UniProtKB/TrEMBL annotation:
<dbReference type="InterPro" id="IPR050216">
    <property type="entry name" value="LRR_domain-containing"/>
</dbReference>
<dbReference type="Pfam" id="PF00560">
    <property type="entry name" value="LRR_1"/>
</dbReference>
<dbReference type="InterPro" id="IPR001611">
    <property type="entry name" value="Leu-rich_rpt"/>
</dbReference>
<feature type="domain" description="PIF1/LRR1 pleckstrin homology">
    <location>
        <begin position="1"/>
        <end position="114"/>
    </location>
</feature>
<dbReference type="InterPro" id="IPR032675">
    <property type="entry name" value="LRR_dom_sf"/>
</dbReference>
<keyword id="KW-0677">Repeat</keyword>
<dbReference type="Pfam" id="PF13855">
    <property type="entry name" value="LRR_8"/>
</dbReference>
<keyword id="KW-0433">Leucine-rich repeat</keyword>
<keyword id="KW-0539">Nucleus</keyword>
<dbReference type="Pfam" id="PF25344">
    <property type="entry name" value="PH_LRR1"/>
</dbReference>
<dbReference type="InterPro" id="IPR057437">
    <property type="entry name" value="PIF1/LRR1_PH"/>
</dbReference>
<protein>
    <recommendedName>
        <fullName>PIF1/LRR1 pleckstrin homology domain-containing protein</fullName>
    </recommendedName>
</protein>
<dbReference type="InterPro" id="IPR003591">
    <property type="entry name" value="Leu-rich_rpt_typical-subtyp"/>
</dbReference>
<dbReference type="GO" id="GO:0005737">
    <property type="term" value="C:cytoplasm"/>
</dbReference>
Length: 411
């Protein structure tokens, strides 16, 4: 039998702690030697040769506490090596350990365990983990992709919607780069993968499937596409740490962006149609540290954009729901109210929630004061961005106007 896994061999005699050997991909196998005894064969893919360990009366211990996580250690008596196995298939690892136990006691193994050979183990090729395709002629149209791929890059300008479905069957894939193609819709089958990095730069993407779920996605690059809005689908990807949306046609940054993407550290919205930055992005206490906003038609003058203080019963009720974190869903509240509740803004003075009635001003503010590194590409643009500030009441609004140097309203 043979088992692919990560392997680390440590010599128990050398316990000075200096030898910090890293685990590496390899294969372990069981073979019957010429003297009719079972041996353990261990080979790291980076080495050409394999190591053999006699098993009969030569196993000091089998450490298998973490076997259900695909980890175990075989302690050999002579030489005094610990063969540490990890990232192994759990069932195969259990079979291997029970076989080693039998062989170390001098028993023969059941006929279901087929003997391998040193030669066979040495001939094994390292599994293909990465594949980059930049020419159409390299595309594996007939033979398909190696199932072991962890990282796949296809920059051929040939991929279109629907994207080749074979990509979505690669179970080990964590990084997918489909930049510089002609894809028009983010493929919904993306959620069949466990991606942490998805790059779709320079395509023709205009739309998204609804309710896309990518539970471990950390990096999403949709720059140089045809997006006209920051879609709700993106706002549902709540594990995102880096979101790159430069060179699209986006007009509005959703006010609840950082509330829905609490892990976001880097946000790039340069070269779009943004006029103002919502107050939530300028707030302290978020993880955002880098914000690219250059080459947008930002408003330059401070101004009043809304003053609506006719408090309705709905506004007061919604404020109460937000303030006291009262749970709600589509069964208990109408859909329109639910969508309003997602998009609330906090008063820039007293932090009370504002939903449909508020006063609003655009006022230049230094984002860097909040620990956010701002990046501009045009030399003419200043580091002060027009922040959209909302105020919950006439009293708070007047405070904001005074701070911004605008004329106060009579109460
Ligand atoms: Zn207020």
């Amino acid at each position: 039998m043979k088992l692919d896994c990560k392997i680390k061999i440590q010599d128990r005699q050398r316990t000075n702690g200096l030898a910090t050997i890293k685990a590496a991909k390899g294969v372990v196998g069981l073979a019957k030697s010429n003297s009719d005894e079972w041996v353990l064969i261990v080979r790291l893919f980076k080495d050409t040769s394999a190591t053999q360990y006699k098993l009969r009366n030569n196993v000091q211990a089998l450490l298998h506490k973490m076997i259900n996580n695909g980890m175990a250690t075989v302690q050999i008596k002579t030489p005094s090596h610990d063969v540490q196995l990890s990232e192994a298939n759990v069932e195969s690892l259990k079979t291997l350990l029970s076989s080693i136990r039998l062989a170390s006691a001098g028993n023969d193994l059941p006929s279901t365990i087929k003997s391998t050979s040193v030669n066979a183990v040495q001939k094994l090729q390292r599994p293909t983990l990465q594949l980059t395709i930049t020419q159409v002629s390299d595309y594996p149209t007939l033979k398909g992709f190696p199932s072991t791929l962890e990282k796949l890059t296809i920059n051929t300008a040939q991929l279109r919607t629907p994207v080749d479905r074979r990509i979505f069957t690669l179970k080990n894939l964590h990084t997918l780069d489909l930049s510089e193609n002609n894809i028009t819709q983010l493929p919904s089958k993306i959620e069949m993968l466990h991606l942490h990095t998805l790059t779709l730069r320079a395509n023709q993407i205009r739309s998204f499937p609804n309710d896309l779920k990518c539970p471990v996605l950390k990096y999403l690059d949709l720059s140089q596409n045809q997006l006209s809005a920051l879609d709700e689908t993106i706002l549902n990807l709540n594990t995102l740490e880096r979101l790159i949306l430069s060179s699209n046609h986006i007009k509005i940054i959703p006010r609840h962006l950082l509330r829905l993407l609490p892990q976001l550290q880097v946000f790039n919205i340069a070269s779009n149609q943004i006029r103002v930055i919502p107050n939530g992005l300028a707030a302290s206490g978020t993880r955002l540290h880098t914000f690219h906003y250059g080459e947008n038609p930002l408003v330059t003058n401070k101004c009043i954009t809304c003053q609506r203080f006719n408090f309705t019963l709905v506004e007061l009720a919604l404020r109460t729901v937000v303030k006291h974190r009262i749970p709600y869903n589509f069964q208990t509240l109408p859909r329109t109210l639910c969508s309003l509740l997602v998009k609330y803004e906090l008063c820039a003075h007293c932090a009370a929630p504002c939903l449909t009635n508020f006063g609003e001003i655009f006022v230049p503010r230094q984002l860097s004061a909040n620990g956010v590194t701002v990046h501009v590409t045009a030399a003419s643009q200043s580091f002060a961005v027009p922040v959209q500030e909302r105020y919950c009441s006439m009293k708070c609004f007047n405070y904001g106007l005074k701070r911004a140097g605008l004329t106060q309203m009579p109460i």
